[in-house]
Amino acid sequence: MPESKGRSKPPYIPPRTAQKAQGPNPRWFVPLMLGLMVVGLIWVVTYYISGVNQYPVPALERWNLAVGFGLMLAGFLMTTRWR
């Protein structure tokens, strides 16, 4: 049985992508990151120690937990951008 001739194709060369060199973070980045995590922790601890619903913001009631964990989450997400 005869064999078919293969087509000659040039090898695949991926396109060049210019990547911008990333410098270090600004000086305020790490203190803000740690500050958000610490303030969130203090917020949640204050909520539990105060007898639930007295502090930090009585009108928020159980949403104080969401605020505290939101602050901690924001600080944690900043750690993924830390260089």
Automatic annotation (TrEMBL):
Q: Does the keyword Magnesium apply?
A: no
- Where are the residues of the annotated region Disordered? 1-25
Q: Which Pfam families match?
A: CrgA (PF06781)
Name the UniProt key words of this record, in alphabetical order. Cell cycle, Cell division, Cell membrane, Membrane, Transmembrane, Transmembrane helix
Just give the chief location class: membrane
Q: How does it sit in the membrane?
A: Multi-pass membrane protein
Keyword Transmembrane helix annotated: yes
Residues crossing the lipid bilayer are 28-50, 62-80
Where in or outside the cell?
Cell membrane
Biological role: Involved in cell division.
Family classification: Belongs to the CrgA family.
Q: What is this protein called?
A: Cell division protein CrgA
Q: What gene does the UniProt entry assign to this protein?
A: crgA
